[in-house]
Specification:
heterodimer, A: seven-stranded mixed beta sheet, four-stranded antiparallel beta sheet, globular, B: mainly beta, 11 strands
């Protein structure tokens, strides 16, 4: 069974800390994505990557960066955590860049980050 | 800019009835639309994709329609069961075709 694994289910960090969220997929997918999900706002795209060492900004990249050194791993970095970054973070991967073949995205279980 | 609206935040129905969820979009003409299911505390799970040239698609008790004139997709669950209780999200590709954007979801509750 294909999997996207996020390293932590729950994290509590202090304001100003540098935070790393890790995501690993075992499906040899080219494309990986980071979203955050907040009540009333839904899923919002932070960053995505369609190849190793490639990255593109999503709709809300401010305060975040990403790293993709290996195909299977995509890391989200909060440079200096703030309370407004408290959220559920979801990683996803896909085989197709435009998902035209009907396989959709595979999501991880999410990391619930609390910044205090 | 693109906008996706799922016009019911919550839908409550009785077991055995058909649930119908609506997804509307504006300022865009997507080539396809997807539906996902999300359980509390979990990531979304892909259910179905429907292309612009497909009027209807079925998978077991699920049926999705896509009306590009109305800019609307309907998601039906027939003979609903309490296990169908979840949040359902619609999604379509952004205008660059590089990533999905999601609606806010409709939370379905099926009571026995």
């Amino acid at each position: 069974d294909v999997k996207v694994t996020q390293s932590s289910r729950y994290l509590v960090k202090r304001t100003g800390e540098k935070v790393f969220l890790e995501c690993v997929q075992d499906m040899d997918h080219e494309n990986m994505f980071w979203y955050r999900q907040d009540p009333g706002l839904g899923l919002r795209l932070i960053y995505f990557s369609y190849d190793v060492k490639m990255k593109e900004k999503g709709d809300i990249p401010e305060g975040y960066s990403v790293s993709r050194e290996k195909k299977e791993r995509f890391s989200l970095i909060l440079e200096s955590a703030s309370t407004n970054q408290t959220s559920m973070y979801l990683c996803a991967s896909s085989f197709d860049r435009v998902t035209s073949l009907g396989r959709g995205y595979t999501f991880g279980s999410g990391t619930r980050l609390t910044v205090v | 800019s693109q906008k996706i609206e799922q016009n019911s935040e919550a839908l409550n129905i009785q077991e055995g009835k058909t649930a119908t969820l609506t997804c509307n979009y504006t300022n865009y003409s997507p080539a396809y639309l997807q539906w996902y299911r999300q359980d509390p505390g979990r990531g979304p799970v892909f259910l179905l994709l429907i292309r612009e040239n497909e009027k209807e698609k079925r998978k077991e008790r699920l049926k999705v329609t896509f009306d590009t004139t109305l800019k609307q997709s309907l998601f039906h669950i027939t003979a609903s069961q309490p296990a169908d209780s979840a949040t359902y999200l619609c999604a379509l590709a952004n205008q660059a075709g590089t990533a999905l954007i999601f609606g806010k979801g409709t939370t379905l509750s099926v009571s026995s």
